[in-house]
Amino acid sequence: MIEDSKTSSLGRYNVTKRERDKYFFKVPSLRNIEHTAPYFHDGRVLTLHEAIEVMALLQLGRKFTQKEVMQIEEFLKSLSGDMPASKDIYVP
Ligand code: HEM
User: Fold this and answer.
1) Distance between CA 41 and CA 26 in Å, rounded?
2) Residue 92 CA, ligand 1 centroid: distance in Å
3) Which residue from 62, 61, 64, 25 is spatially nearest to 48, judged by alpha carbons?
4) What is the pLDDT of residue 37?
5) Any residues with Cβ below 6 Å from ligand 1, and which?
6) Structural domain range at position 45
């Protein structure tokens, strides 16, 4: 069963004040994910390992075995590359 995510933030609604934007969050890229902790919009998860377990539970309604979590973690680490220089990051 898929569980509800517990968050105190209203997400995009805080900016737009549109009812339909409540609990909408921008999903960050998984590129370089091993270097971009803490995870999720509120930074509540410190390790990639736990972030994978949370995703399994909240988004897939599954509990991965430790082996599965470690395999996914290894895959996500394969998405690492050169970090963009801060001068190349777009700040609106
Ligand atoms: C094995 C499958 C999955 C893995 C390993 C995974 C991994 C991740 C990770 C590591 C993050 C944190 C990104 C960050 O904070 O920089 C994330 C965020 C997110 N993912 Fe997943 N994900 C999976 C499946 C899914 C699915 C199936 C959905 C939706 C149908 C989903 C929706 C989201 C959303 C909405 C966020 C942002 C949540 C927030 O900021 O609070 N994910 N995912």
Assistant:
1) 8
2) 24
3) 64
4) 95
5) 25, 27-28, 33, 36, 39-41, 51-52, 55-56, 59-60, 72
6) 13-81
Q: What is the CATH number of the domain that holds 27?
A: 1.10.760.10
More confident: 6 or 44: 44
Q: What is the pLDDT of residue 36?
A: 93
CB 56, CB 64: distance < 8 Å: yes
| C-beta separation of 67 from 20 below 8 A | no
Residue 28 C-alpha to ligand 1 middle, in angstroms?
A: 8
- pLDDT for 66: 98
> With 70 as the cut, is the pLDDT of residue 1 above it?
no
